[in-house]
Structures are given as C-alpha cells and as structure tokens.
Amino acid sequence: MELEDLRIFVEVADAGGVSSAALRLGISKSMVSRRITRLEAELGAQLFARTTRGIALTEAGCTFRDYAARVSADLDVVRETILPAGELRGRMRVAAPLSFGPTYFAPVLSQMASRHPQLQILSSYTDRFVDLVGEGFDCAIRLGHLSDSNLVARRIGPIFGKLVASPAYIEAHGAPEAPDEIVNHQVVMRDAETWQFMDGDEIVTVRPQGRFIADNAMSLVAAALDGVGVAYLPEPLVAEHICSGALVPIMTRHPIPPAGIFVVRPPGQYPSRKVRTLTEMLIERFGTR
After folding, report:
1. 142 phi and psi, to 5 degrees?
2. Among 10, 42, 206, CA closest to 120
3. Which domains, and CATH codes, for the chain?
4. Which of 20, 22, 28, 154 has the fewest CB atoms within 10 Å around its CB?
C-alpha cells in the first residue's frame, strides 16, 4: 500500500469527487481513478459508492478515511522534524471565514506558498465553524470572541466592530442611544447572536431580535445598506460604506469592545511547523494595531 494512494484517497473523500480531487492535486482524473481502484483492490473493500450523481464514502470508506488521514498527517510531522529548518513540504488544510478570507487572509496564504514551493496549501472559505479534527483541517482562522473548546488558540491581532445603520433606516426609525434600546429596533444578525458594548469600564451584553438572519457577514452588510435594520459588524466590512455615507455609525458613546483574530488548531502539545509559520506570518500582517 503506497502512501500516495492514501493521500489521493483522502483528497477524493474530502473533495467529494474525482474531478475536484484531481484539480486540487494537479493530476489527471484517470490517474486518481486508477489509484483509488488499486487501493480498493489491495484492501478488498469498496471505499466509494459510485452513482450517476457522483461518489460517496461507504461505511468502510468512512472508517478508512480517518486512518489514512492520520497516517498522512503523521508522516508530514516526521518530515518536518528531519527537514532543514527553512523547508516546509507536504500539505496544509486551512479554513478561513468567507467574509474576510479571500480579501484579508488569502494574500498571506499565497505568500506562504510562494516562499515554500514544496508546500501544498488547501484553503476552504466558509463562515461556518468547521470541525477541525473530523474534517481533517490543520488549523482555522477565526474572528471574534472564542467560545470554550478543546481547541488550541493563538491570538494574532485585534479586530474592531461598528454598530451601523443606513440613513434611510435612521430617518424612518431613529437610532438607539443606549444598549437597552436595541430591543426596540429591527436588526440584521447571525442566528442567536449576543452583542457587547462598553458602558464606561463595564461590558454590557445584549441579545437582539431580528427578522433578517444570515450566516454570512456580507449578506448582513447588504441588508443594512438597504435599510432593513441595525447591524453589528467588523469595521473592515463597513469602513468604505461609512466613508461614502451609505452607512452611519450609531450609539458611538457605547463602543464595541475589541475582538480578536485567532489561529485555532486541534489539541496537541506542539503545533506543526506549517501552522507555526502561518501564525507568525499572520501576526506580522495583523498584529501591529
């Protein structure tokens, strides 16, 4: 059983198809199919159920996927340990938020790939919190205030928020002047959010109620611009609209406490060199404010 067959199998399982895996790996679909067929023959088990819609892991494939991912990851750690300090190779799977990732974090990842030509970087942009262990990610970049978990987090810099509304909304409904007035306003929000504000040296927590709920921050920006309601958003997403006057900062006497940008990784004694290198590059880029 060849290690490369294991890597290709994991890629097909994670990508959800031969074509997507071949594109990620930079090899032909026929080669991917041959490797999977050979691996199934060696194991004497069917790893994928093939249908007209595509492929899906069988029960045996689900079990084997976790084993193959662990073996591949362990070998990457061994390679990192014995390679010269400046070299990174193998692959690194990174999850980043869709609202910020392509603009703010993708340039750092591309710079890392340029510096380390033997390193394969697989990035996934989504505003949901991925299961790092279950989905095979080396790390994720997350924003905000982290909830308690068994993940290991490293803060790389601050991120600031703004409470905003459109001029049309303010003209029609007014603007809240204190945190307890927010319950009287329509808001645009992620599901089950809590909002925090400063009242002097104290942090006040509010649970808003809104009729426009989305799992993507850019959708909330669009709704705020259309006057649907008050929005509680990271400053980088609304700075341009504030400058143009399309959105107006409100309740400025009660600023939003700074949140953070974090790199989170699965539990373990030490992060891999790949994750450490990415973390250092992100700190260099975002840790100066």
Report:
1. -130, 155
2. 10
3. 1-79 (1.10.10.10), 83-160+258-289 (3.40.190.10), 161-257 (3.40.190.290)
4. 28
